[in-house]
Amino acid sequence: MERSIADNLFNVYHSYDIKDHEEARFIGVFNSKKKAEEIVKKYKLLPGFKDFPDEFTIDKIKINEKTNCSITGFVTKDGFDLPCWYVESEYYKQNFLNEANLKNKNNKVK
């Protein structure tokens, strides 16, 4: 009998800006949104997290689907080799691509 698995996984992150840098933590991967939400609820009570309770991100990742990454599983962005799952995550797109697009817009010659 073949074991059934979910079509999606859910990555949980916590990140916030403090002073002159970003604090970011990868919490874990869960097989349901409900489990991801339950862990966020628990973490919101913990030191290091409770001061920034609204800064959690739950990112849905589809499994058994081709990515746009190289065969190595990594892609180079801004001089760093990053895992494909991270670059394709909503967290990365929201926090880094938007920032890069703003920089590019601001650097264009008018």
List the helices and strands and how they pair.
Blueprint: E1 8-18, E2 21-30, H1 33-43, E3 56-62, E4 74-77, E5 80-83, H2 84-87, H3 90-107
Antiparallel strand pairs: 1-2, 1-3, 4-5
Describe it for me?
This protein is of the alpha+beta class and 110 residues long. The protein folds into 2 domains: 1-64, no CATH class; 66-110, no CATH class. The chain is built from 3 helices and 5 strands, in the order ββαβββαα. The strands form 2 sheets. The protein has a 3-stranded antiparallel β-sheet, with helices on one face. The protein has a two-stranded antiparallel ribbon with strand order 4-5. β4 and β5 (80-83) form a beta hairpin. The protein is flat and about 35 Å long. Mean pLDDT is 76; it is low at 102-110.
Count of all domains:
2
Query: In this structure, how is the largest beta sheet organized?
Result: 3 strands, antiparallel
Unreliable spans are: 102-110
Helix content: 25-40%
Beta strand %: 25-35%
End-to-end separation in angstroms reads 64 Å
Q: Any idea what the radius of gyration is?
A: 17 Å
- How many distinct beta strands? 5
Helical stretch tally: 3
Order of helices and strands: EEHEEEHH
Structural class: alpha+beta
